[in-house]
Amino acid sequence: MLIRKPDDIPSSEITPYDVYLNRRRFIQGAAAAAGTLLTAPGSLAAGLTGTRPEQEQEIDPRFRTLEDELGDPLNSFEEVTSYNNFYEFGTGKEDPKRNAGSLRTRPWTVTITGEVEKAGVFDVEELIKRFSMSERIYRLRCVEAWSMVIPWEGFLLRHLVDWVQPTSRAKYIQFTTLFDPEQMPGQRRPVLRWPYVEGLRLDEARNPLTLMATGVYGVPLPNQNGAPLRLVVPWKYGFKSIKSIVEIRFQEDEPPTSWNLAAPQEYGFYANVNPEVDHPRWSQARERRIGEFSRRPTLPFNGYAEQVASMYSGMDLRRYY
Questions:
Q1: What confidence score (pLDDT) does residue 61 get?
Q2: Which of 2-16, 69-83, 248-262 has the highest mean predicted lDDT (pLDDT)?
Q3: How confident is the model over 188-237, as pLDDT tens digits?
């Protein structure tokens, strides 16, 4: 199925799917990027309101042989959708898949407020149609030093940021998750201060690695993975990737974040992957890839130092953790 790019996305920012899978090839071949995108049948663009399949055999077989930018194979669809952190549906890794069926993701709106010219309430399907692009593979790392390789799809956050036109006062963005204990039973317990909130600096939000994910494995996001809209920031720990977003606020001051409020001595605002800074209760020098027995060395910025380290030049990354 051919998906033509939106008129407001420059062709220089869009590359074919296979080129995205290897960042070195991407850097070398960006100038020759194609003007149209190919996505598989059953992808998000083809089925925005379709059902969310729970069986791996329904997933396009091309995903079974793909690798991420560092040559690592994808985790399976079952692993990606069955081992999750989403405390709104329980603190166990299996709880979100078991309990997230109560979440109603259509219709869904996102409120954009604060220091922007184009504030308002927007239907998530309209945002997806406006900004969607082809799939990209990212590695999402979680705070317990476990990780997965996940084929997210969605749109670059920078396109949404530029579209709403932040004012000169906007320096940060705060994201807020839905608060509805009826749909999210984990919110009935004071595990965190609800609703869940996260934040980025504006330059982090505009980085071309920062993704608003709307699908995984070529299908719309399952509820347990943050449907219908979640943040993916691949050089940061997984708790930074807020799920089921209902509000995006642009502001001048650094916003509070849920884990920093809960345990400021353990979770800082930035959450950049830094193997030289241990969590107070465990080492972060090595990670465990789900599906593997042994641990592997943790890479600075989760392997994306080439693309993002310059944003933190001159900062003490032990203090600003």
A1: 74
A2: 248-262
A3: 999 999 999 999 999 999 999 999 999 999 899 999 999 999 999 999 99
Q: Does residue 311 contact residue 203 with C-beta atoms inside 8 Å? A: yes
Domains of the chain in start order, with CATH, are 2-312 (3.90.420.10)
Q: How far apart are CA 297 and CA 287, in angstroms?
A: 6
- Banded pLDDT at 83 (limits 50, 70, 90): very high
Compute the radius of gyration of the chain from its Cα atoms.
18
| pTM to 2 decimal places | 0.83
CA gap 53, 183 in Å, rounded: 20
Asked if 87 and 238 touch (Cβ cutoff 8 Å), the reply is: no
Spatial separation of the C-alpha atoms in residues 276 and 53, rounded to whole Å: 40
Angle between helix 124-131 and 157-164 (nearest 10)? 110
Distance CA 255, CA 70 (A): 33
Label the pairing between strands 197-201 and 211-216. unpaired
